[in-house]
């Protein structure tokens, strides 16, 4: 997802105080796990999608797509653009439009509606979001909640108003309950509160699933969402303070190598993550847009056996960059959620022949891109 979905001067100030130890649990208990959220669990009613379009504009679902990509200049948006334009991923007659914050402030309904009316998309890939790593989430949960709720509500309503056939939104495995059984699957999104470190972002992303089901129930819309695990690749945000773990490690290792200083990894190195290469995710987004006809979300991830610890990820970065210095772990820094192992069984059932790029190969390509584009990379 891309932070370019909004204009910096429209974002509310970051929180200066603590988030309150029980905030996510209080929200969950107030809603009632056996009331509202029991209605949101995947159901045969939502799968597969109703094919009929409910608006006045008749769209030929088998005709060429006009695809609007929100957050089109971020990590995943750039990867999709590469697949479409450089790898021949677009089909004959298709039109692809990649939006950035220069085109519209998606937290403003008027601007969102105007850019959708201008382009009249038949299909939308919704990547735009306020995003950030663990420490940025911990200090700004309110901002993550409010800004993402505005963006998502505006985009889905504008899509409905232009009678878009399909919307594929991007969620994250951080939306899943903190206290759960593993592996996590698509039926478990609403089974409990997320980890307290990023509950604002997690709840806002969960609500896209609620949006999709409600638009299907009322209007027959075939809007869905994908849930990728930790995405990395060229055009990532390599900011050490606010970026995600892998690009942050790459940037820190690059600086440490230049300065001849130790590489300091924040946390103990024990948490485990599944990483997916952005170009692999881009190919899967195109498949979902064309071939996956369910409102129920789908996890896009490497297998459970490919999960690695942060320590193993740091060692892979060291190898990819040829770093020769000392590696230390700052255990005064938070580890965040220990694990969020996701099952890709549903993906394999629908798309059994998909091959993921091996982690070390994808990481080497990402490191090489960062070094070659250091001056212009987001950092």
Automatic annotation (TrEMBL):
Protein name: GDP-L-fucose synthase
Family: Belongs to the NAD(P)-dependent epimerase/dehydratase family. Fucose synthase subfamily.
Key word S-adenosyl-L-methionine present: no
GO molecular function: GDP-L-fucose synthase activity; isomerase activity
Organism lineage: Eukaryota, Metazoa, Chordata, Craniata, Vertebrata
GO-annotated biological processes: 'de novo' GDP-L-fucose biosynthetic process
Coiled coil: none
Domain NAD-dependent epimerase/dehydratase: 67-302
CDD domains membership: GDP_FS_SDR_e (cd05239)
Keywords attached to this entry: Isomerase, NADP, Oxidoreductase
The enzyme's E.C. designation: 1.1.1.271
Record bears the keyword Aminoacyl-tRNA synthetase: no
Main function: Catalyzes the two-step NADP-dependent conversion of GDP-4-dehydro-6-deoxy-D-mannose to GDP-fucose, involving an epimerase and a reductase reaction.
Gene3D superfamilies assigned to the protein according to its UniProt record, in alphabetical order: NAD(P)-binding Rossmann-like Domain, UDP-galactose 4-epimerase, domain 1
Pathway(s) per entry: Nucleotide-sugar biosynthesis; GDP-L-fucose biosynthesis via de novo pathway; GDP-L-fucose from GDP-alpha-D-mannose: step 2/2
């Amino acid at each position: 997802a891309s932070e370019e979905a909004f204009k910096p001067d429209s974002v509310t100030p970051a929180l200066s105080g603590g988030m309150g130890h029980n905030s996510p649990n209080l929200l969950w208990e107030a809603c009632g796990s056996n009331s509202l959220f029991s209605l949101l669990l995947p159901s045969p009613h939502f799968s597969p999608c109703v094919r009929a379009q409910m608006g006045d504009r008749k769209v030929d679902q088998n005709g060429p797509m006009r695809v609007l990509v929100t957050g089109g200049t971020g990590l995943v948006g750039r990867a999709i653009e590469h697949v479409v334009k450089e790898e021949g991923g677009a089909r004959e007659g298709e039109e692809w439009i990649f939006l950035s914050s220069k085109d519209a402030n998606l937290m403003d309904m008027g601007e969102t509606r105007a850019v959708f009316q201008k382009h009249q998309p038949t299909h939308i890939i919704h990547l735009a979001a306020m995003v950030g790593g663990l420490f940025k989430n911990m200090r700004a949960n309110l901002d993550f909640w409010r800004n993402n709720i505005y963006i998502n509500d505006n985009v889905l309503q504008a899509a409905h108003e232009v009678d878009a056939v399909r919307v594929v939104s991007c969620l994250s495995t951080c939306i899943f309950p903190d206290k759960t059984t593993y592996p996590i699957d698509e039926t478990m999104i609403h089974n409990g509160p997320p980890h307290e470190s990023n509950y604002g972002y997690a709840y806002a992303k969960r609500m896209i699933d609620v949006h999709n089901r409600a638009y299907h129930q009322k209007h027959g819309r075939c809007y869905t969402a994908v849930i990728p695990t930790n995405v990395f690749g060229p055009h990532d945000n390599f900011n050490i303070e606010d970026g995600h773990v892998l690009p942050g490690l790459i940037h820190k290792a690059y600086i440490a190598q230049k300065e001849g200083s130790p590489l300091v990894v924040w946390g103990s190195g024990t948490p485990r993550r599944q990483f997916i290469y952005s170009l692999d995710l881009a190919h899967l987004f195109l498949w979902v847009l064309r071939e996956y006809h369910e409102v129920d979300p789908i996890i896009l991830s490497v297998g459970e056996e490919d999960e690695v610890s942060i320590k193993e990820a740091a060692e892979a970065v060291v190898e990819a960059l040829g770093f020769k210095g000392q590696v230390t772990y700052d255990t005064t820094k938070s580890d965040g959620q220990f694990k969020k192992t996701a099952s890709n069984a549903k993906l394999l059932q629908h798309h059994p022949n998909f091959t993921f790029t091996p982690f070390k190969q994808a990481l080497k390509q990402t490191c090489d891109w960062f070094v070659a584009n250091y001056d212009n990379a987001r950092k």
